[in-house]
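Session log. Operator J.P. requested a structure for one protein chain; no other inputs attached. Running the standard single-chain path with token output.
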Amino acid sequence: MKKKKKVLLAEDDSACAAVMKLTLGREGFEVVHAPNGRVAVELARTEDPDIILMDVNMPEMDGVEACRLIKSDKAVRDVPLLFLTANDSPADIVEGLAAGGDDYITKPPLHSILLARMTAQLRVRELHGENISYLEALHAMKRDADTAMLLGGVSHNYNNLLAPLLSTASMVGKAVEMGDQEDALEMAGEIADLAAKLKEVNDRVAQIRNAPGPGEGSVPLGAVLRPVGEC
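Structure written below.
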């Protein structure tokens, strides 16, 4: 039986929380509720959620501060966190993303948009986990100095590409909601370009994985480690 994805819902409005729990429960999610930011930080560390939905304006600790604490904790910082709030000004969005949020959804959210963005963030986390597993396995081998150099280059390229991709992706939905199709199309192009470069990173790792055995040839390590996108 497939394990349910666990959602940590930080929402101080009990009525809103009840509706969200019912909605997400019908979609097959397990929902853990936090009535404020302080409790959300505690539950993020003890409940092992797959994704976090965080209101901003809450008592005791607001969502932005709770996000900062969660994203500063190595054990839970990779859990995708989506702000769910009525504060949709550009300044509020920038503050939330700067605190480490992965997306920003205005309340009340359209059911389809909320699920689509949650699914997208969960998929990104899954792929990120797979890549980390591959890199950790490669690192464990520690065959020679070239392998260590390769790990450093792959990690650097991967992180430099993933951060702007996620940031741009989070803004596409906002542009669509605001009817700014031109900006949305431009950002979609940027995402496609970044995704292509991430594929380039994986292709270069494949060069090492599929390289001939000792004595059968050499791996073009310099080409593998050059910055992504460089001619």
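Operator note: The CA atoms of residues 144 and 150 lie 10 Å apart.
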